[in-house]
Design brief:
Structural class of chain B: mainly beta
Number of helices of chain A: 0
Largest sheet of chain A: 6 strands, mixed
Number of strands of chain A: 9
Oligomer: heterodimer
Shape of chain A: globular
Distance between the termini of chain B: 40 Å
Distance between the termini of chain A: 36 Å
Radius of gyration of chain B: 14 Å
Number of strands of chain B: 11
Number of helices of chain B: 0
Largest sheet of chain B: 7 strands, mixed
Helix content of chain A: under 10%
Structural class of chain A: mainly beta
Order of helices and strands of chain B: EEEEEEEEEEE
Largest interface: A-B, 27 and 24 residues
Chain lengths: 107, 123
């Protein structure tokens, strides 16, 4: 299977923009998903199919894709956005792969 | 409202067995592929296994292949994970998770997660 690489941490001030990248060779062929996980809680889907936002997810969350990299952008970061974020995709044998995870700290 | 409730976790000795269950409600369980995903303490997410809605397709991570068996009972809206030959590295919170379907198509992603059940493998 393949790997998805994310930066370990991103720090941002309230109201600023946070960008989290996820890189992997299989990303041009498969959709990417993004999940937010707060301490002691289950993950929550925030972006699906690279750039679609589920109902109930604030508009400040957006996703984009370019080649072997997908990006989760949080515009106008709020303190409640402090969490771990994971990207996820799948390979041709239907094996799901999660990214290494990024801890977003709101300073 | 979609609900996924896991049960069956606990403390087990290395080499032992455990069976996890996931009770689903709030959606047509028999129409969705389901997954097990785990998270070791302080670590990231790791996909464990998937099972299609009709059980025709079943997949496992290499780390559990040959030791874990996924199954489902659509009549009981339930998903299961039989875990044998458990190792210390299997210690984790195990999540039951639903595949994402939208507009009549399903995709290799997850839209709903349970709250998880903790499995601890230790002597």
């Amino acid at each position: 299977s393949f790997e998805l690489t994310q930066p370990p941490s991103v720090s941002v001030s309230p109201g600023q923009t946070a960008r989290i990248t996820c890189s992997g060779d299989a990303l041009p062929k498969q959709y990417a998903y993004w999940y937010q996980q707060k301490p002691g809680q289950a993950p929550v889907l925030v972006i699906y199919k690279d750039s679609e936002r589920p109902s109930g997810i604030p508009e400040r969350f957006s996703g984009s894709s370019s080649g072997t990299t997908v990006t989760l952008t949080i515009s106008g970061v709020q303190t409640e956005d402090e969490a771990d974020y994971y990207c996820q995709s799948a390979d041709s044998s239907n094996t799901y792969v999660f990214g290494t995870g990024t801890k977003v700290t709101v300073l | 409202e979609v609900q996924l409730v896991e049960s069956g976790g606990g403390l087990v000795k290395p080499g032992g067995s455990l069976r996890l269950s996931c009770a689903a409600s709030g959606f047509t369980f028999s129409s969705y592929s389901m997954n097990w995903v785990r998270q070791a303490p302080g670590k990231g997410l790791e996909w464990v296994s998937s099972i299609s809605f009709s059980t025709s397709y079943i997949y496992y991570a290499d780390s559990v292949k040959g030791r874990f068996t996924v199954s489902r009972d659509n009549a009981k809206n339930s998903l299961y994970l039989q875990m044998n030959s458990l190792r210390a590295e299997d210690t984790a919170v195990y999540y039951c998770a639903r595949d994402h379907c939208n507009g009549g198509s399903c995709y290799a992603g997850i839209d709903y997660w349970g709250q998880g059940t903790l499995v601890t493998v230790s002597s």
